[in-house]
Amino acid sequence: MESAWEWNSPTCPRLAAPPLRATPRVSLLRCFLLAASCCIPRAMPPGAGEGEWAAVERRGPHLWASGRPFVVHGFNTYWLMYFAADPATRPAVTAALADAARAGLNVCRTWAFNDGGYRALQLKPFSYDEEVFQALDFVISEARNHKMRLILSLCNNWEDYGGKAQYVRWGKDAGLDLTFDDTFFSDATIKSYYKAFVKAVLTRKNTITNVAYMDDPTILAWELINEPHCHSDPSGNTLQAWIEEMVSYVKSIDPVHLLEIGVEGFYGPSTPELLHVNPDAYSGTIGTDFIRNHRALGIDLASVHIYSDNWLPHSEEDSHLQFVKTWMQQHIDDAANLLGMPILIGEFGVSLKHGKFGHKFREAFMETVYSTFLSFWKSGVIGGGCLVWQLFPESTEHMDDGYAVFFSKSPSTLKLLTDHSRSLES
């Protein structure tokens, strides 16, 4: 999620689209090797993938772990690494994971990046802060201690915590002639910066567990980038080429862990018959394309976000809930029947910041998301799951963007999450 969500503004500037270019083709041999690598697990260190803590696997449109179905009942807390880097705030990391575990949640999505700025993991291209890396080590180790899987996002479309804008600034500092942030997706040097960072993270050996990240079943999946947009090429060709290149690169290093893109799920030019499902006309012109993006060889999870409070700013509550049902049903159908992969509702939530919506509606919204997914999962149509944006422990109120759910202040929301946990077990 972006902090301000200004991308949806009708005043958002448009950039001239560059000439279209052909999407790179992957050789038949490369396709075979990549497909094989996704199906044959790499040997894990002793004990790392055994028994109750085996790696989560994809079997068609379902997830499995330790010989039984695995369903994502998750949450977002993006700042875990950032807080873990300071001994004064590190206890909040343990508190967040412990609170969620007590409610029956089993997956946390969080940032594995911080590009430039305060407590940066990536100080500059090819240079990383060891203390912050050790903070990420702690997050992964602590997640394992609470039997919590992690989805680790590797970059941000937005400027929060650096993101693609910081990569482009680094390129300009190095003398590259870059005119706008979308060159993150096309410039060869910028892509080399991103690849170097990805390799540093995936091959990192945890200083606490002594297990390499790419061998750790605590990590459920990698995410290429949070909510990528490429306004400069509405055709989607530029972003699609980047996705295909980076999927291939990630899988060449780590063919075991699951991989997802991080898109919101907007339909694009490849499926004009589905553009009406989008919340508005603009969201079909930002360079993302749900079906086409997820047909990139090596993607394991169909990524979708839901923020009707921002996407439908003038709708009544009933219209929001109907949108959620329609949005989810269409994406679940496409993920199951066109893509053959699990669906991951990677973010969903309602902001209470401006008083338009209250706790009662937020819980009705959450219940609609959970019940819609549950009906399809119990009928055997699809697997995957949902991750609410976002759960915070006490003492982190200053981080609230309006979407934060504090268990200590929201007992009815806690009950809703606990009830969903029980529904998934029944």
Main sheet makeup: 8 strands, parallel
Characterize the quaternary organization of these chains.
single chain
CATH homologous superfamily caption: Glycosidases
Distance between the termini: 32 Å
- Strand tally is 15
Instruction: Report strand order across the widest sheet.
Output: 10-9-8-5-4-13-12-11
**CATH structural fold name:** TIM Barrel
In short:
The chain is an alpha/beta fold. It has twelve helices and 15 strands.
Can you describe this structure?
With 426 residues, the chain is α/β, with parallel strands linked by helices. It has a single domain (55-425), classed as TIM Barrel (Alpha-Beta Barrel), CATH 3.20.20.80. The chain is 37% helix and 14% strand. The chain has 12 helices and 15 strands. It has an 8-stranded parallel sheet. Helix 5 (163-173) packs across helix 6 (188-202) and helix 6 packs parallel to helix 7 (237-253). It is globular and about 50 Å long. The two termini are 32 Å apart.
Describe this protein with a few key phrases.
426 residues; alpha/beta; TIM Barrel; 3-stranded antiparallel β-sheet; 15 strands; 14% strand; disordered N terminus
